[in-house]
Amino acid sequence: MAELYLGKWKLEDANKEMFNAYLEGLGVGFVTRKAACAVSADVTISLEGDIWTIKTSSTFKTYEIKFKLGIQFDEETADDRKVKTTVTLDKGVLIQEQKWDGKTTTIKREVIDGKLIVTCIIGDVVCVRTYKR
Ligand code: DKA
């Protein structure tokens, strides 16, 4: 199951309007939202033993998280939020949950038809970003 995710993925399709709405829901300011929506991104997912790494690279920012499934850790996000994050793998979906200041966002990653589908959810805002190999 894990091997489905591993390797490098390149952003193929992103709804900029919905990504902007998602970032607004996170509390990201105007200038950062514009920069983040304008750029493409690569995601590299690797697994060593039971430690997963997800590295997201773009001309806007490069950041990575390292985690064990089900174990909460402190994450400083690309937009500088300090959050408590837990990642689980449920029925083939990698689910990243971030909690901070009474808010929660979920980022789901699943491989469908050879593409990495990233669904970012906050409140009733749902933004889908599609990556290809
Ligand atoms: C993705 O991997 C999007 C994941 C959500 C990133 C939110 C933080 C953005 C910082 C401006 O395609």
TrEMBL record:
One of its GO terms (molecular function) is lipid binding. SUPFAM superfamilies: Lipocalins. Transmembrane segments: none annotated. Residues 7-133 form the Lipocalin/cytosolic fatty-acid binding domain. It comes from the Eukaryota. Signal peptide: none annotated. InterPro entries: Calycin, Fatty_acid-bd, ILBP, Lipocln_cytosolic_FA-bd_dom. Belongs to the calycin superfamily. Fatty-acid binding protein (FABP) family. PANTHER family: FATTY ACID BINDING PROTEIN. This is Fatty acid-binding, adipocyte.
